[in-house]
Hints:
Helices cover 34% and strands 21% of the residues. It is α/β, with parallel strands linked by helices.
Amino acid sequence: MAPFSQKVYIKSYGCQMNVYDGQKMADLLKPHGYAITETPEDADVAILNTCHIREKAEHKVFSDLGRLNVVRKNRLTEGNNNKNMIIAVGGCVGQAEGEEITRQAPYVNMVFGPQSYHRLPEMLAQLQQKVKGKRRTIIDTEFPTESKFDFLPTPDETPVSAFLSVQEGCDKFCHFCVVPYTRGAEYSRPADAVIKEAKRLLSLGAKEITLLGQNVNGYHGEGLDGKEWSLGRLLFALAELDGLQRIRYTTSHPLDMHEELYNAHGEIKQLMPFLHLPVQSGSNSILDSMNRKHNVDDYLKIIDKLITARADIAFSSDFIVGYPGETQKDHQETLELVKKVAYAQAYSFKYSPRPGTPASILQTQVPDDIKSQRLTELQEQLNHQQLSFNESMVGKTLDVLFDRSGKLAGQIVGKTAYMQSVTLDGCSSLFGNIFKVKINNAYGNSLAGEIV
Ligand code: SAH
Ligand code: SF4
Ligand code: F3S
């Protein structure tokens, strides 16, 4: 391996898949002599691995770019010319905006998307060659014909709780969403590549693996037998691996719940009884307008089937309030659905019109103050339910996987099967272990207790 001669700062925004991609960028650059730095101040290369899902996420990128430019300018005025910094924008804003980014922020040297970052070492090498003393700008937002996964190195370190991308892209085209445009068409990695990566993560100390995909349960990769495997089939194969104590998968679409997946929930004890199954709205007419292709009843039937397969399962979801045309009645129906499912946890957002998506040009946009009002109301109910769910754990003894340090010295934090955080006094030598913890107290976002 080349000695580290440069430093790269990588900041990831958005979903878990971006976190995974950010880690892979670091893995890719390491053999080329790039060490990771946590601050842009001493970086030779700064990469913003961006998210385009809502307008706010995009604004954040442009304000962070402004800050990076200040860091760069300060260095130049300090006469430190050979420490000039390369500024790169990757991820979903890179894919969606391309050259527009360099028009708005001309100091950006490189723009690329989620499907072309395997070329990063090559792109950086090209950038280092100055033309007439000036740097060129590289824009790489084509969807390449090759799969980036074939070019990503195997990891050489892992957290206790690791992410593993198995599926990427989306063909669903919900009318509010940019993902099909930023990530491209659905693609599933072959099962042997997934299993190899999982084995590697386990050998490096991972105990929990979360399979990632924009439509992870739409997985249809080539199986070990050469036939197409569903996500359920893949889960059964992964459950055979030594040392894998917990498996999760996210994010699922209700349309892609298949028989083998219900069986997996019923039979695989390492598959955690907690499922993120976004519904977005509790109103049939809104679901229809969103192009979700299922109604509330279909969704409730899926929930029932999952409970039949695994009685202790709990659910989380995503909701959008103030989608174009949403009436007070539609909103009430969402609140009713939330009550019915009794979610353990959920994310909720105000609808954000995204350029190029069908919903953004509907004439029936909902005013912002109404969106805010509905969001507050929904979140109050979700928080209330989350607290009740957490309170239902008091007095129980739960398995907790400890994997990180707490805010205060001497504290460690772990997760229950339901992703609730539990903080205890303890030392980091406990990381990677599951302990039985008797729960004494419950809060909105966490539990407290003692190891038994
Ligand atoms: N593939 C996942 C979701 C990916 S995006 C699924 O199908 O459920 C994550 C969440 O962001 C979505 O579930 C949705 O709730 C929210 N979201 C997506 N586009 C949005 C928009 N334009 N405005 C507000 N929220 C949005
Ligand atoms: Fe977006 Fe819908 Fe695809 Fe999820 S299923 S990524 S919400 S288009
Ligand atoms: Fe954001 Fe792209 Fe993920 S838009 S949510 S980073 S797929």
